[in-house]
Amino acid sequence: MARESVNKVVLAYSGGLDTSVILTWLQEEYDCEVVTFTADIGQGEEVEPARAKAEAAGIKEIYIEDLREEFVRDFVYPMFRANAIYEGEYLLGTSIARPLIAKRLVEIASETGADTISHGATGKGNDQVRFEINALALRPDIKIIAPWREWVLLSREKLMAYAAEHGVPVEQKRDGTKSPYSMDANLLHISYEGYDLEDPWVEPGSGMWRWTRDPVDAPNTPQEIELTYRAGDITAIDGKPMSPAEVLAELNRIGGEHGIGRADIVENRYVGMKSRGCYETPGGTIMLKAHRAMESLTLDREAAHLKDELMPRYATLIYNGYWFSPERMMLQAAIDESQRVVNGQVRLKLYKGNVLVVGRQSDSDSLFDESIATFEDDAGAYDQSDATGFIKLNALRLRVAGRRRGR
Amino acid sequence: MARESVNKVVLAYSGGLDTSVILTWLQEEYDCEVVTFTADIGQGEEVEPARAKAEAAGIKEIYIEDLREEFVRDFVYPMFRANAIYEGEYLLGTSIARPLIAKRLVEIASETGADTISHGATGKGNDQVRFEINALALRPDIKIIAPWREWVLLSREKLMAYAAEHGVPVEQKRDGTKSPYSMDANLLHISYEGYDLEDPWVEPGSGMWRWTRDPVDAPNTPQEIELTYRAGDITAIDGKPMSPAEVLAELNRIGGEHGIGRADIVENRYVGMKSRGCYETPGGTIMLKAHRAMESLTLDREAAHLKDELMPRYATLIYNGYWFSPERMMLQAAIDESQRVVNGQVRLKLYKGNVLVVGRQSDSDSLFDESIATFEDDAGAYDQSDATGFIKLNALRLRVAGRRRGR
Amino acid sequence: MARESVNKVVLAYSGGLDTSVILTWLQEEYDCEVVTFTADIGQGEEVEPARAKAEAAGIKEIYIEDLREEFVRDFVYPMFRANAIYEGEYLLGTSIARPLIAKRLVEIASETGADTISHGATGKGNDQVRFEINALALRPDIKIIAPWREWVLLSREKLMAYAAEHGVPVEQKRDGTKSPYSMDANLLHISYEGYDLEDPWVEPGSGMWRWTRDPVDAPNTPQEIELTYRAGDITAIDGKPMSPAEVLAELNRIGGEHGIGRADIVENRYVGMKSRGCYETPGGTIMLKAHRAMESLTLDREAAHLKDELMPRYATLIYNGYWFSPERMMLQAAIDESQRVVNGQVRLKLYKGNVLVVGRQSDSDSLFDESIATFEDDAGAYDQSDATGFIKLNALRLRVAGRRRGR
Amino acid sequence: MARESVNKVVLAYSGGLDTSVILTWLQEEYDCEVVTFTADIGQGEEVEPARAKAEAAGIKEIYIEDLREEFVRDFVYPMFRANAIYEGEYLLGTSIARPLIAKRLVEIASETGADTISHGATGKGNDQVRFEINALALRPDIKIIAPWREWVLLSREKLMAYAAEHGVPVEQKRDGTKSPYSMDANLLHISYEGYDLEDPWVEPGSGMWRWTRDPVDAPNTPQEIELTYRAGDITAIDGKPMSPAEVLAELNRIGGEHGIGRADIVENRYVGMKSRGCYETPGGTIMLKAHRAMESLTLDREAAHLKDELMPRYATLIYNGYWFSPERMMLQAAIDESQRVVNGQVRLKLYKGNVLVVGRQSDSDSLFDESIATFEDDAGAYDQSDATGFIKLNALRLRVAGRRRGR
């Protein structure tokens, strides 16, 4: 099939085997210049080695960027204000990183005069959708090459053969082993798919998990931490001010130590299939629990309930790749409007996989009024007889119905 | 103030101090016959002692009933089909028991020719609302006496004085101590309010918890269990068929042993205030996690997402006391419609407060299709090029907007 | 491109030019047997002429069916129980007919041993999606041929040329003219697209409309009608019992006479573009207004509000082609649960495009209680002082917030 | 019953009989100073006469204010951005005026050192709730006197007797008649309740309606108007720039002439009963139809659908009295976020009760793309084959389910 003509391609380039093959393949098949873009979003691997590889492949425009602060500040933090969780279990670790990559790809395309972007996501997954819809929302005329949907190298074997034939370097992991899982990582999480996870009745081998200790091996003594919130975002841990990326890195460290944030789930992909995934999200798991606790003290009841009802849709939008859509922005406006009062501290106890809330306070914004809630005499702060009218009028519609229908 | 005239009152009677004082107070203030109703809904205390006390107070019509199976089968199970959770944390243990009590109160009123019911819930809480709205929905002409909203005995001291003055027996607990907390229990949970919980920054004393071990003291070895689902309900544990109440009792036992199901939360009451509550829901916590896992394999994506969006409202309806309302029945109809396919087994690992899903299967209804989801060559089960059209049309509206608005 | 091999195709065949060309094209391109299926769903054109045309084309298995009762009873009526309206304006006239056609196509495929179905919907519209998703939901292995997406005859000129070349008969309309609009009709509505409608600032020519009088030319005297409802469905007009299809035909007749049910809208297609459409839905417009009036008297407030909140999603599901989906069935279960009490009569005044409700009553199920609602003395049916407690507790959360935040 | 002690009361004072009696009654019963507040919100009656009456009653602090612009700009316009409509029929004319009155009452209380406000709404209606919840949200310590819930003058007869006894002047209408209906009016609408409306089967007498012509008597020739929108608000009529209140007044005038905006409905009050009300909302009816048309051209599909799903809740919040609540502000933030692009013109035809959209355009923000939507050859703007992948992946979940479940 004749290839569409492209002038220059910006490739989301990790430096690993897959995107190295794609790099060569793009050069050969499309006979065009390639710009590589490699971002540090906290995946825990060096990004600088990608430079030498790109240079070796003859690339002239090489972008290597540390996006960790932008990632947490502009993507992870807004999402956690919503208490977003997909299908009751998944903290959207992969989903939330894609719009940032898509944004930088099209920005770099504009900077370098490229008309095309490319990525290494497969044709079965959600990531292709997230990359492409977000990119098209930001720059509607961008062309996209998704090699996995075009080529014939649909097995690892064929990919290795192509690499050998075209001189693409294939490295061994330093320890000589290679994980059998398909993995993705960023500052929010690491994910595992494929291999023995393809049977949802089978528990994955304990060697799979990389970021968290097995709860059985975690410390036998609980650890307490205190988080400080300002407008719904964490600004300090144990009283020490930190930037967003510092907060998340530190919570990952502590949470991982205590075996927090493992999830083993079957999820529904946007492209229509169910898939099994395992995730480690230590910091995010702590953040979700703590944010809810901070809100429980400071947020109005109906504001909180409205957030709870909007959340599943908000989470699905992010999962499906609609970060840069008007409907996500509408929901974000509603959520952010609610967060001005979410200020204070939360104390947590971390222990062998558990995140336990043991205290929450807010000098400026607590709506907990002991004088009203007390079981002791409240000196008139609340008039119990008000409840009679409250109940009678709330029941009125049901009483009328009962009378009419002969109950 | 002159009392309204009543002919006979059915009292929700626990046999404890509060309802014993109410019993005497009703006889004195209203000069009417009282029928006592004491139910075993799994609160873990003997109900038969209530008979002797009622007889001693001169009661002629005494109802003592074991409602455990009806409670779990007709209230707890339907609620768990919805994955109901209030404000992200509360499993509605108290809320779900009230409609059953309200139902029996008005049924007994009809059987005994009583025109009035009475209960011992305070004027600040949710339970008065739940008792009364549910009762009025079922029998719109029923009169209700809520002594806590009427009388002047609004402190423990005054209550004790009244008891002493009117010869109401005040027992000591067998161990000579009395919990300083206000508690409620049934087969689904036990709750704690008041005392040191009135400061939300303070962690409750470790002696408060009664049903679960402290995770620190729980077994050092994980335990695996397998639950069997049929139409969304658990019908067997480790292959052994059990009735609904047996299932819940057994899961409480196992979960409690492993320190599962403690929650310490600030919640928003229907009457408008925030309150702090601690809950132990060992079996329910296992059930929620397992049910979600069973659904993840068998439920259609959009059915699951619709359930997630409806859930917060469904939970709020139960929390607020609207079990016997048309809107709850509408939501239940939608939820139950989805559950016919929720059949199969879930394997769980229980360990020191953690409920970990390690496997799920469904011979009849699994929608997990390995041939499609696989990372290996799928032999044509899924055509990756379909994703191109899928993405392009899903992005079309955003591309048009981008073009028009000069992005 | 080589065609996929098919053994036999069931074609949704109107007998018009487009599907006649498709019929020939299928025979030629796929070299397979074709079964024709022509349904009377109230489009107002004879279906029998399709038989002769199909026979002339050499078709051996010809299905011609009157589906009007099934269409209204099983599709239109359930939809109107929901008060479904898409984007505030569109009564889903085309959308609701597609699942029935899809259902019969796959049923006929099973009866005749065909492995494929085909239809004449274009690649830009919603109808292709509705046909195909509903068909695939009912028979997942069915093959589908959508000629408009495959062939090169993408203009009217080319189509005519193909017809001429292959001897497909091209009839003139009896009056020698042909509408310049793309139209679709069934018992619920007739629609117009294309031609001068492609500029949304331009009003269509008055000659476009076919089913309704121009309100300016409608009778100068209002007409009253009375509709009888049973469980949410109309069972009689002016006291005369009628079948569902009879009801809709009669309301179309009366409504059309009074210029009722024209709509001129810009709508959002599922495939991502905006399009302009004009619709005449005389009977449906009356039904929507009347059903809401019947519900206003008989439906509980919260049930009605829940329906209103679920409606947009329900309407979108039908618009997008998900009638036979589990999520539509869940919503239908909730809606139908609410309709048992929707019984009674509604009186309407029809006048020059207006549908005015002038009365509603329900002997069995009215929840309107004059003794409570009256502005006169109600003899104690309602205690106004109850409102004080009702307001105070509903405002409590806002008062606490105001105090804390120094308002 | 002993009255609560108050120092000074701000009374919402119309100058009519009811609030004049209340004025005297407050002076007598509470023995306190009264401040009167009379606002012109477009009810169509002179407000200055209230000054002389208040002076005659000995009032020293008299507030008479023209709030028409604030009313439309800050309350009506934001509400119409949401396309708010309660229970499918009611345009919230009364509901939206109450928060403004409540706001001014508490502001005047602060200015004059008053600790109390008072109003003339009855104990059965929604208005008491709207006044009081909004006032308490703004000033949580304000005391409220609602005479209709306190006194014994619960019939018109007793009220007249009180007036006569205390020298409260009772005027006749200029034409010597008095409407038998309970009415309320402001720039958005006029409402009617009571009298023959108390039987929902009875059509009100034609003499009831005051603002609109009977459609039968409206002009025989349609009138066209063009509305200009900027960020979702109307800024000009027929090209002539106008202020918000001018726009609404002019649309009322034109709409009333053409018999537009009558509604006769049974609605569900927040206090639990159903009531019958008739409304004339000529300008608002035009605004709702036109705003939807403007959005249909300029708003993204998913933004529009999200608005449709949020709308019923938003409308209910306003109906129930929660304008100054955090949840209304959250929804408003989401709605307003969507409106920046709602710019352009809408052309309407008004005729005997009908509001017909005949054109819409937007130079800056139209998302209608003729090159894509055309039925003619689109020169490649849209690739029809994309639809194949779109449909196949959207149907994938249903196909998998169908295969597994043996359909």
Tell me, briefly, the overall form of chain A.
Answer: elongated
Query: How many separate domains make up the residues of chain A?
Result: 2
As a percent range, the share of helical residues of chain A equals 40-55%
**Quaternary structure:** homotetramer
CATH class category label of the largest domain in chain A: Alpha Beta
The overall average pLDDT of chain A, rounded, is 94
Binding site for L-aspartate (chains A, B, C, D): 122, 126-127
Subcellular location (chains A, B, C, D): Cytoplasm
Catalytic activity (chains A, B, C, D): L-citrulline + L-aspartate + ATP = 2-(N(omega)-L-arginino)succinate + AMP + diphosphate + H(+)
EC number (chains A, B, C, D): 6.3.4.5
Report what the structure shows:
The structure is a homotetramer of 407-residue chains. The first copy, chain A, has 407 residues and is α/β, with parallel strands linked by helices. Chain A has two domains: 8-166, Rossmann fold (3-Layer(aba) Sandwich); 182-299 and 342-361, Argininosuccinate synthetase, chain A, domain 2 (Alpha-Beta Complex), CATH 3.90.1260.10. The first copy, chain A, is built from 13 helices and 14 strands. The first copy, chain A, has helices at residues 17-30, 49-56, 68-81, 98-112, 127-138, 147-150, 156-166, 244-257, 282-298, 301-320, 326-339, 370-373, 386-404; strands spanning 8-12, 33-40, 62-66, 116-118, 143-145, 182-185, 190-193, 223-230, 233-237, 240-241, 262-268, 274-280, 344-351, 354-361. In chain A, the strands form three sheets. A five-stranded parallel β-sheet of chain A has the order 3-2-1-4-5, sandwiched between helices. In chain A, strands 10-9-8-13-14 form a five-stranded antiparallel β-sheet. In chain A, helix 1 links the parallel strand 1 (8-12) and strand 2 (33-40). Chain B binds chain C through residues 268, 271-274, 299-300, 302-303, 305-307, 313, 322, 325-327, 329-331, 333-338, 393-397, 400, and chain C through 268, 271-274, 300, 302-303, 305-307, 313, 322, 325-327, 329-331, 333-338, 393-397, 400. Chains A, B, C, D: This is Argininosuccinate synthase. Chains A, B, C, D: It catalyses: L-citrulline + L-aspartate + ATP = 2-(N(omega)-L-arginino)succinate + AMP + diphosphate + H(+).
